[in-house]
Amino acid sequence: MTQQVPSTEPELAGVRNFRDVGGLPTVDGRRVRRGVLFRSGHLAHATGEDAAFLTTLGLHTIFDFRNAADQKLEGPDVALPGVRNVNLPLSDPADGAEFWKMVRDGDLEQLRAILSDGKGADRMIASYRMIIKDRTGEHSQVLHALAQDSVPALMHCAAGKDRAGLSVAVTLLAVGVEREAIVDDYLKSNAKHRRYKVHRSSPAASAYSPEVMELLSPLFDARAEYLTAAFDTIEETWGGVDTYLEKGLKLAPETRETLRERLLD
Known about the structure:
The chain is 48% helix and 7% strand. Residues 1-7 have low confidence and may be disordered. By secondary structure, it is an alpha/beta fold. It starts with 18 loop residues before the first strand and ends with a helix.
């Protein structure tokens, strides 16, 4: 029998950035139900105790937004009994394996060339905009699956910040969660115990110098400007959230209402 979901956030040893999205308020006075929608970083390094906890959540589906390069780097998710795993690769904000190799191995001059003078943040903003515009099929698939039967659900990518963050944000928009609450939840990924750990190939102190970490920070930060760029793209491309959901994601009003009933108190 599924155990009651704890009200406090657990400390998982091998899974970063895990949290229940429940409790967020909607514009019409409802709240996201606890125990139906979770988000996290990848599950490849989940310990036995982590897996045992995740099993108590009664998950129906895990949506993994990592691509093949991510999975090669980190490994596949730890399998959970009776849980369906759906891999829907979304564009990596850092453009895949070669870029991440540069992040791990590049020297200071190389990092300056690709990330200095706002280039790192610009890359992230462009990626968020692209995912919203170009990945309507994947986001449509997620929302239709949630409306049909795929809850409780866990959404994750590598860090649980960008691709999962956008997918969670789109889901929350669809059920009418307040925009400010969506941003506040997204920014929780900045907490020290949630952040993706930066791995550099060299153990030398210079590999983690203040300048290096400052150059890398746009890639590992959750910044309101990134999510705002995604929201702006919805407005600019479709004229508003309702049209985005109906025309862009092919979400019929009745399906959207079913989604609300599944995810809201």
